[in-house]
Amino acid sequence: MNITFKDRVKLAGAIIRKGIDGIPFFNSSSFSISDSSSKDFKRTEKGDKQAYINNFTSWVYSAVSCIARHTAKVDIKLYKQTSEKKGKESWEEIFEHPFLDLLKNPNPWMDMYYIKYLTEVYLGILGNAYWYLPKNKLGQPGQIIPLLAQKVIPYTKNQIEIDHYEYIVGNNIVKFSPDEVLHFKEPNPNSLIMGLSPLDALLLSVDTNRAMMEYSMSLFEQGAFFGTIVKVPKDISEQDYIRLKQEIKEQFTGVGKAGRTKIIHGDIQVDSLVKTMAELDFEAGRRLTKKDILEGYGVPEFKLGEGASTASTSRANAYELDRMFIEETIQPRLIRRDSVLNKFLLPVWDDKLVCESENISATDKEFLLQQETARIQTGYWSINEVRALNGEPPAPWGYRPWVGLNMVQMAGFVSEEAKKENQGIHKKKRQMRENWQQVKEQKWKSWVRKEENTEKKYIADLKKFFSEQEKIVLSNLRRIFDTGKSKEIKELVDFVFPNLDQQAEKLSQISKGHIREAIVNGVMTAVEFQEENNKNIKEEPSPDDLARVGFTPASFDAYVNQIIKVWKDLYGFTINQTIQDELRELLNQAITGGWSISQTQSEIELLYSGYTSGISPEKSLRIARTEISRIMNDSEHMCYKNLGYKEKTWASEEADEALCEDCEAMDEEVVGIDELFSCGVSAPPLHPNCRCNILAGDWSEE
């Protein structure tokens, strides 16, 4: 049976007016469905939801889509309350959870960016947005499906609580319970149930802008036929009349022929009935409506490319406009989105879970520069503390603050006298050249003892990390095979392997303590090397020990934090990417070879066994040994630079079972303290599992 437009209007009216299971929120007078078949201009009726959607054009589209783009690209992070001591809450970021899986794959047809974008569009036009949350077998949300907000009708019990939602799907009505729908809304002083549409406050400007656009288009399309009357003499011949009519039509009708001038003979008169756009000052009118609409949505013109040259004349102006847009327009919407998820969705899993959008606050670079300068000039920061914050390596002379009007450096940095003393110790060691092998072996044994102690603890944590990762991979694999779509997915590893950035973050958190311990090992090795008897001193450097190698406690902590940050961005990512690539190759073989789920699982378990099986799994051992060795050598190298040494010597030890021909060939090579060795590195390791080290100064036989 075909249902006409009028029938649909009656059906919608019946749905709105009925009160069988509750009180309809809308009155029939405030809700209607637009019939856009008429070509006459019609003002938008307040409360007409479809008409509001039809206004998603021109400046409304520009403003709403700008907001939607900025909010949709902001990721949502998940946290869990771990403890509460002395009234202070402690939160831990969660990287693996069904909620995060839901955001990663909300439904088979859409991604989360699209859903977040569409949600903000509906909020910007109608003031309301809805997510339908179908439940899985565990009774938890299994999908996120955005509903067309103009098709949703909420029913309330008492003007405070929702009784149910009705959704118009074609000629049918689907009824949803409140726990099946997540409702986002703009604050509304007239209702506790429905959000207020921003267009309610902007309808006059929106309709004015639309009227000017339709008027302009009408002139373009219809030209002289509707805007001009041509009077001809009564005695004009039929042939001349037809010729004049045809000439006007051919030469003056249409967009490309507007504005032409016609010169005529005789008594013909031309009267214009339509004012031009210039006469109506449409350009100024549209500027005013644009300003009104953009200000109503809180979107500055430069965000749309308008006035960009003016904003860019001053960096401070551009920054301030961007900051205001983020803080006054975007962040409140992100807070609203987070609040709805925290209040109505996350408690389904755990009431201690909280989600929060990433911080996107604009950074005032000029203010930060002034802050850095002031803190340096007052001695609050040292040069290297500033360099560490900016991601730059420390300078040998930058560990002590500078004070005074003439910026004199404070006492405590390794002085020239101390450098001469250090060099004197080195000369004494040069005189003991006949004990070279003994010195080298003794230093290597001390170095290896520290390295192996840290290495064992690091391997234990790496085994746990890769075991957890293996469980996630196998779980995701079984889930995909259960759907029967494993062969349809081009890159199966993207759906099986956890988020790469999150895994890098997690690995860096696990590695943080071991990295610091490795740095301490390198520093203590440098301190011990300054002692003539070359004996171990202690496991943790004292402030005096740090001062001997050019550090303060504060600058040492800054150096450690910088090394950890660089490690995460480079090595934490690379290690996970390596195993992801290994897994990609394996899964591609599984698909092309038609492997069963059990065979694929066995191969994945075999792959991860190199990281998890035994006391010292081969691959975890290689990661731990290589990284600890590299960090220890880098830290020791930094200390020697601070101490003023001019050269460094490569030391390979025959007692090392990992010694290879390449490393043996490097033994006793001497280069400048800032130069690369002939093998292309500034300090060992030369290769994975390498345990070579360096000696400060020139220990060659020459």
Automatic annotation (TrEMBL):
Residue ranges of domain Phage head morphogenesis in the record: 582-694
InterPro entries: Phage/GTA_portal, Phage_head_morphogenesis_dom, Portal_HK97
Cross-referenced Pfam families: Phage_Mu_F, Phage_portal
Domain of life: Bacteria
Protein name: Phage portal protein
Organism: candidate division TA06 bacterium ADurb.Bin131
